[in-house]
Amino acid sequence: MSTRERILDAAEEILRTRGVAVATTKEIALAAKVSEPTLYKYFDDKERLLLAVLKERLPGPARLTVRPGVGDVEDNLTELAHAALTFYQQSIPMLGALLADPKRMAAHRVAMNRHGGGPDKAIAIFANYLQAEQTIDRISPDADPNAIASLLIGACFHTAFLRYYSEGPDATTAPRASAEALVQAVVRPLLPLTAPRGQ
């Protein structure tokens, strides 16, 4: 296993159990059995390391290949929503403590913007997919991709938060049926398809 992979393994475990606000690069380096300077050779700062964990280790919409014009629009949105549910459920314990510390939150926001990360990226994935479907007439030209994406992502986050809140950090991953229900409840009324399902 490469040094980078060992660092990511250690970071994923520590960030998941201790959260980004408390975890230090020193303890991550120690768990990975590397020096802290070695860790910084691979990752500029803790936010860059966090971003790598979020992108490479947690299942999320950015890791899916959902192509416009292929498959059913609702099924594709369900796949994206299921990935978002899983991602939020696993990332909430990593990021939750930041909300209670305005200074760290501000520094985190600046660093994530510098690295091209942030919560708005998930909305963009959904909105870009919907816009692409709109250009090939698979959804109504009257649909608002950004509004639909925001509503669905908000529902995914809320559902994941409630699952984490009620079951704790060891909660099982939300089933695909949860994502399907969200798409049907939130998106279907706002998303008149211009082609029959399955086309």
From TrEMBL:
PROSITE patterns: HTH_TETR_1, HTH_TETR_2. Residues 24-43 bind DNA. This is TetR family transcriptional regulator. The lineage of its organism: Bacteria, Bacillati, Actinomycetota, Actinomycetes, Micromonosporales. Residues 1-61 form the HTH tetR-type domain. Transmembrane segments: none annotated. Keywords: DNA-binding, Transcription, Transcription regulation. The keyword Phosphoprotein does not apply.
